[in-house]
C-alpha cells in the first residue's frame, strides 16, 4: 500500500515522542516543581504537563482511529 511507508514513519515518530515525554516526566518527578520554585518555574512544569497530555491524546487518536481507518480505506 502506498500509505504504509508514511504511516510507519509517523508511528516511529510517535514512539520517539512518547519516550521523550517519559524521560521529561522522570526528570521533573511527574511534572512536580520543587517546593521553593518560583511562579515561572511552576508555570513551566504546568505547561510541560499540559503538553504531555495533549500530545498523548494526539498520538492516541492518530494511532488508534485515523491510521487504521485510512489504511482500511486504502485497500
* Spatial shape: elongated
Series of secondary-structure elements, N-terminal to C-terminal: HH
Task: Measure the end-to-end span.
Answer: 7 Å
What do the pLDDT scores average to? Answer: 92
Q: List low-confidence stretches.
A: none
Task: Describe the structure in brief.
This protein is mainly alpha-helical and 75 residues long. It has helices at 4-27, 39-74.
What order do the helices and strands come in, and which of them pair?
Blueprint: H1 4-27, H2 39-74
Comma- or semicolon-separated keywords:
75 residues, mainly alpha, 2 helices
Characterise this structure.
- The longest helix is centred in the last third of the chain and has 36 residues, at 39-74.
- Helix 1 packs antiparallel against helix 2 (39-74).
- With 75 residues, the chain is an all-alpha fold.
- It has one domain (4-74).
- It contains two helices and no strands.
- The model has no long low-confidence stretch (mean pLDDT 92).
- The protein has helices at residues 4-27, 39-74.
- The N and C termini lie close together (7 Å).
